[in-house]
Amino acid sequence: MIARTPPHLLGIAGMTQAEIVDLLDLAEGYVDVNRAPVKTSDLLTGRTVINLFFESSTRTRTSFELAGKRLGADVINMEVDWSAIKKGETLIDTAMTLNAMHPDVLIVRAPDSGAAKLLSEKVNCSVVNAGDGSHEHPTQALLDALTIRRRTGRLAGLRVAICGDIAHSRVARSNIHLLRTLGADVRVIAPPTLLPSGIETLGVTPFVDMRAGLEACDIVMMLRLQTERMRGSYVPSIREYFRFYGLDYAKLASAKPDALIMHPGPMNRGVEIDSEVADDIDRSVIREQVEMGVAVRMGVLDALTRPVLEGAA
Ligand code: CP
Q1: pLDDT at 275 over 70
Q2: How far apart are CA 22 and CA 3, in angstroms?
Q3: Which of 52, 53, 58, 143 to mutate for ligand 1's pocket (most ligand atoms within 8 Å of CB)?
């Protein structure tokens, strides 16, 4: 998938184990760069990266901006609320307009599944899917994998529970593809209303009982209720949801004693996760996930622009 011209990163599905590991290894090299007092390089000098976000974002947009700037690229953040989209211009026309300005990479977040792929077929620059509806969020899965790998030294053989709103989660889908490809045992835990039928075909084991699902897990990955994608009511009440599916120390006791707690953010404390658990400095790696996000996005920009740079040499 990365190997097309121009190369894109549209999803984890279809990527090989080697392609994923290569990206993780590349990102790993940027972790120390980001911790150094001077973080900038000239790798992407003269290159242009455009952030085109049709949905809100704190982590993904900021880290792509930082990643591009630290690599020396010119980074433009399209302000959708102040763009011609407000005058009725479509997503495709917007992308083609930006494409005419010769960017090298377009980072796209959109509410519709398949939007990034559609745009990649219309433009002649690289496209990165920064989240398309409930379909995929590939850089989130990569940063989650990098966080886990740095903490445990491996992904193969780990038992990972992904808990919460599986039905609407692009984070869940990308993580399932990545973790299964790298040999992890993946469980999904959700109320029946938020567990898509046929999810087993992705190679995961579904649970509706959270304690049973968390049994002997190495990693507990919590998800937000994606209310913006819901039509109607999926849970009886927030209080009821937290009682059965909110991560607290009582439920966490079913997992391994050293199980890591993850959350892609944004978190809704007291809904899917108890505040104390989220802030547990011994178990929670939520801030580390954010840190790894910059390294992963530097690795992705590096990988996507590399063949062009080599071809031009
Ligand atoms: N995890 C994630 O995609 O966060 P943002 O919506 O803040 O980018």
Answers
A1: yes
A2: 12
A3: 58
CA distance 168 to 239: 20
Distance between Cα 266 and ligand 1 center (Å): 6
For 127, half-sphere exposure in the C-beta direction (CA atoms, 13 angstrom radius) is 28
Residue 148 CA to ligand 1 centre (angstroms): 18
Q: Which residue's C-alpha comes closest to atom 1 of ligand 1? A: 264
Q: Which residue of 55, 57, 223 sits with most ligand 1 atoms within 8 Å of its CB, as the best mutation to test the pocket?
A: 57
CA-CA-CA-CA torsion sign (216, 222, 227, 228): negative
Distance CA 235, CA 284 (A): 26
Which residues line ligand 1 at a C-beta cut-off of 6 Å? 57-60, 131, 140, 264-266
pTM, entire model: 0.95
Q: What pLDDT score does 236 carry?
A: 79
Closest atom, ligand 1, to C-alpha of 109: 8
- What would the pLDDT profile of 22-68 be if each residue is shown by its tens digit? 999 999 999 999 999 999 999 999 999 999 999 999 999 999 999 99
